[in-house]
């Protein structure tokens, strides 16, 4: 394995668009402020998220996370790290990316990390798809799911400004109320349809709820904007149009992330319910659904996170007039701005 030599070089900003991430920024030094794989391609982004959303990352101890952070921070400061190899550097960086927020650099809540998506979502979704026939069950599991989603959406927000508790509480109330109301409405509408149709109620409710929950939990971004940067990483201001673009991308990717695990198992379970072993052991319904959902989420989570670049961009001409005019007045005004879309 190659040993990393710590000669000096200027670390680029993490928002700088980069196309060949495997190359060293200067001879003997690696640019770790970009992912290891080319983020301009879907394959490169998929490789990156397969690593950072790996459920095994949630098993990392606090000591291991702090050690990974120490390596990343020392390397960025060009401090000497004797014997550090390239693979060890990337392993530390990828573990760091899985647990620390890209804007605030704070350690994220465990269940809010994308690496916790598979174990958490497979359990919650499996139960939603098993217990969907009674109103109390629908209310409880939709509330539980949207509470979890609210934590995820807050944890993976874009920007580095703290959100007031009052604003957070109002957003949570709107998100969970909207989600539960949607689920109950749809559940009542499909009572006269065949049983198979009823199995799709949870997915429909989740898809509709994502359109409510994510904008609610990130509503501060819609009102105040998110940080935007030029291609050299210089902060240009904050944009609400960039926030709208970021949140739209996240809503689309979250709905598609849930699609395989909530659309395919109903057909499988509808077939299995007719089997004699399921009639003898109806308690198998929940664990089978949880495992089926988990199987699909293992692949859907990283692949749907990779649909859009984490560091998205927007043409300056598409920004709101106030920030657009400010940018266009700059010397060598950029044509595009870059921002963290969140996850």
Automatic annotation (TrEMBL):
One of its GO terms (cellular component) is mitochondrial inner membrane. InterPro entries: Mtc (IPR004686). GO terms for molecular function: monoatomic ion transmembrane transporter activity. The keyword Signal does not apply. The chain crosses the membrane at residues 251-268, 288-308. It holds the Pfam family SFXNs. It is a multi-pass membrane protein. Its main location: mitochondrion. Coiled coil: none annotated. It is found in: Mitochondrion membrane. Keywords: Amino-acid transport, Membrane, Mitochondrion, Transmembrane, Transmembrane helix, Transport. GO terms for biological process: serine import into mitochondrion. Belongs to the sideroflexin family. This is Sidoreflexin. It comes from Magallana gigas.
């Amino acid at each position: 394995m190659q040993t990393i030599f710590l000669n000096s070089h200027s670390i680029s900003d993490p928002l700088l668009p980069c196309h060949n991430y495997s190359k060293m920024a200067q001879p003997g030094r690696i640019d770790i402020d970009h992912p290891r794989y080319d983020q301009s391609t879907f394959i490169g982004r998929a490789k990156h998220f397969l690593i950072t959303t790996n459920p095994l990352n949630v098993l990392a101890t606090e000591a291991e996370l702090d050690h990974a952070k120490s390596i990343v921070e020392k390397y960025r400061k060009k401090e000497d790290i004797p014997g550090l190899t390239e693979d060890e550097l990337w392993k530390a960086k990828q573990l760091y990316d899985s647990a620390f927020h890209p804007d605030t650099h704070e350690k994220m809540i465990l269940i809010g990390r994308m690496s916790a998506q598979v174990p958490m979502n497979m359990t919650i979704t499996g139960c939603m798809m098993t217990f969907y026939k009674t109103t109390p069950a629908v209310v409880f599991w939709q509330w539980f799911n949207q509470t979890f989603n609210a934590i995820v959406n807050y944890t993976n927000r874009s920007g580095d400004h703290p959100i007031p508790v009052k604003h957070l509480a109002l957003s949570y109330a709107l998100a969970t109320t909207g989600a539960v109301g949607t689920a109950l409405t749809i559940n009542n509408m499909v009572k006269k349809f065949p049983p198979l149709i009823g199995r799709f109620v949870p997915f429909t409710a989740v898809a509709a709820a994502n359109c409510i929950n994510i904008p609610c939990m990130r509503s501060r971004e819609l009102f105040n904007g998110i940080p935007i940067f030029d291609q050299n990483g210089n902060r240009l201001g904050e944009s609400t149009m960039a926030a709208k673009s970021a949140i739209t991308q996240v809503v689309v990717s979250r709905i598609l992330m849930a699609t395989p695990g909530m659309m395919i198992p109903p057909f499988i379970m509808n077939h299995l319910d007719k089997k004699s072993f399921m009639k003898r052991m109806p308690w198998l319904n929940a664990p089978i659904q949880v495992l089926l959902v988990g199987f699909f989420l293992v692949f859907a989570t990283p692949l749907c996170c990779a649909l859009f670049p984490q560091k998205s961009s927007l043409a300056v001409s598409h920004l709101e007039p106030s920030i657009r005019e400010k940018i266009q007045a700059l010397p060598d005004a950029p044509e595009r701005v870059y921002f963290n879309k969140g996850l």
